[in-house]
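INFO batch 0412 | record 1 of 1 | parsing
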Amino acid sequence: MVDDFTAFIHHVSTDVTLTEPQGHQPSDALSTPRPGRTAGLSVRHVYGEDFWDYSADTEFICKTFPAKEAGNKTQKGGLELGRIIISGASGDLGRRVTKILLAADPDIELTLVSRTPEKLYKHKTHGIRVMRGDYQEPDSLNAAYTGGEVLFLISGLNLGHRVSETRNAIAAAKHAGIRHIVYTSVGGIHPNNPALSARDHYQSELDLRASGLDYTFLRNALYSEIISNVLVAPATSSGDISQATAKGRLAPAAKADVARSAATVLLESAKHVGAVYEITGPELLTFEEIAYIGSEVHDTPIKYVPISADERLAFFDSIGIPRTYDPSMPPSADGHMWASDELVTAEVAIAEGYQTVLSGHVKLITGRDPECLRSVMESVKSVRYDQIPAEVS
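INFO prediction complete | emitting tokens
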């Protein structure tokens, strides 16, 4: 892990290298210099450890290339692919990854695990099991994970309980004989990150490292669709985006790229043991730049108004968003279950530079450049966030 955060709050470059086991050659990230853009710190991941160093100013170009074809399930890197378990399979990411895996190999052996398995019964076939599993009920996980070799552990949303829930899943995986956990973490992992969700994921990464199981971390950046439809779209009527993000930058990732990266790792899991991936979009953006993109996409003026964390909390209080996450709370108007303490601490993390992370790992994993925010925004601008179909984004 990174021991000194002194330099990390500066800008992160696109220069990323990954040292992997013999037989896997990483792709070069597509980048080009751009005047006026600084990118002081590069992320360089070596299997099992993280390193940080300075590099030249670079920035990604937003382009689209054909997706790399996935192989069949019989042989992956010289090893036979065993049953994959998707835990949290009824959520948006779980559904997207399931769809990609089935498209790559209709005969793949999957176990889909969810607190609401009835949402998944349409997938039940000879090779696919649907099981009930609740992160707060260890016995349910012990049964659900039985027979699996690779676990796609999609982290829960229950802030304050996420660490214990992940520990339950890790214990169940060990009980079931699972050899490899692919875990959905978050960008900006650091012990001093003020974002409450990042603190949870930091601890869960430590727990996985100490588990004795093989692991892969997918540190997913903030979804482009959230920025597009939860933050920018409502601003078309008010004319401004008020955030406690100061001049911080981030590289939002398209849901399709997150899902495609996860599915590729699952299909070729032996190649990715011990890897730590930063799943980001192709460009670092301030919210001033995001507002500018939104203005062009929606053809209406939108400006960014930086505010304090206290002002942001007061706004959420005024519209009835609770400060603390509760699994039983009603969804917001956009169909999501938001809690303001998590949202505001995440904005502060952006302001302080913890989300200034940009990598070429999407292309490294999938062979395809990630989609830029403008492209995502154009695709989903007329759809409510919770109704965005995988075919659109």
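INFO post-check: The domain at 18-226+251-284+356-385 is CATH 3.40.50.720 (Rossmann fold).
INFO record closed
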